[in-house]
Amino acid sequence: MRRVLAVTLSAAVLFGAAVVARADALDRERAEALAELSVLADRSYDAAQRTDHLSGNVAQAEQDAEDRAAVLAVRPAFLEELSTLAAVLRGADGKVDTATHLAAARSVQETVHAERHDPGIVVAATATVEALTQKVGTEVAGWQAAQNAGPGGTAWTSSGPDGYARVRAALDRVGGGGVGLYESSSCAGGTAPACANSNGYIKYRADIARWSDGRLNWAMAHELAHIYQFRVWGTLTSSSTYAAMFGGDPEFLANCMAVVRGFPGSVGCSAEQQTWASGIWVGVVG
C-alpha cells in the first residue's frame, strides 16, 4: 500500500512539474509572439508612412506637371506677341525713343522665363507686351504725322542744305533722330531762335545754323525736351511738384532736362531738379 502511494505521489509531482514547464513555455511563446507582433505592427506603420509619403510626392509631381503644362499652353501667345513687338521696335528705330519700352519688354520676358506654375502670370505678361506694341505703334504714327504736319515746301530755305544739315546733326546728337526739323522764322514771331510744336516737330531760325556746337547742341536738347513735355502735358501741368520745383515754367524745366542729357545752358539746376526732370525723358511725372 505504501509503495502504491509513493508511486502515485511521484507521478503527481512529475505531472505537476510538466504542467509548470508547459505553462512557462507557453508564456515564453506568448511573449515572443507579442514581440513579433509589435515588430510587425511597427513595420506596417513604417510602410504606411512611406506609402503616404510616396503618394504625396506623386500627387505633388502630378500637380506640378499640370501647372507646367498650363504655363506651356499659354506661352506661344506670349512669344508671338513678343515677336510682334520686336518687329515694331525695329520699325521705330531712328523715329522714337524706345529704350524704356525695350527695358519693360525684357523685364516681362524674364518673368515669363522664370514662371513654372501660374499661367495667369504669362497671360498678364502677354497683355503687357501687347500694350507696349500698341504704345510704340502710336508713337511712331505720331512721329509720322509730325513729318507730314511740318511747314510746306522744303525743310530749309535761307539756311541752305549745309546749314540745315548742321542743325539736323545737332538734333540727332542730342537724341532727336526721329523728330521732324524745319527752318522757319515763325517762332514767337521770329524773336525765338527755335521752338517745338505739339505735333512733334521742331522749327529753327536760319541764323542758329551758324551758332557754336555747344550752343547749338543745347538749343536742340532744349527744344527736344519740349517734345517730351508735350507727351505728358496733362499730367505735367497738374503736378504740384512741377509747380513747386519749377514754378510751372516749361522753359526752366526744358533747361534742366537738357542738363540731364549733358547739354547745360546758362541756367543752373539743382541735383534735385535734375533728378525730377530726368523722369520726363522716360514719360514719368513725379
Features of the shown structure:
4% strand; single chain; elongated; 9 helices; mainly alpha; three-stranded mixed beta sheet; 286 residues
Structural features, described:
It is a single chain. By secondary structure, this protein is mainly alpha-helical. The protein has 2 domains: 2-147; 160-281, no CATH class. The protein is built from 9 helices and 3 strands; from the N terminus they run H-H-H-H-E-E-E-H-H-H-H-H. A 3-stranded mixed sheet has the order 1-3-2. The radius of gyration is 43 Å and the shape is elongated. The relative contact order is 0.06. The model has no long low-confidence stretch (mean pLDDT 84).
Strand line-up across the major sheet: 1-3-2
What overall geometry do the principal axes of the alpha carbons give?
A: elongated
Helix content: over 70%
The biggest sheet amounts to: 3 strands, mixed
Output the helix-strand order.
HHHHEEEHHHHH
| Number of structural domains | 2
The percentage of residues in β strands lies in under 5%
User: Which stretches are poorly predicted, pLDDT < 50 over at least 5 residues?
Assistant: none
Please summarize what this structure is.
This protein has 286 residues and is mainly alpha-helical.
What is the secondary structure topology, with strand pairs?
Blueprint: H1 2-92, H2 99-114, H3 119-148, H4 160-173, E1 180-183, E2 194-196, E3 201-204, H5 213-231, H6 233-237, H7 240-246, H8 250-260, H9 271-281
Parallel strand pairs: 1-3
Antiparallel strand pairs: 2-3
Helix pairs in contact: 1-3, 2-3, 4-5, 5-8, 8-9
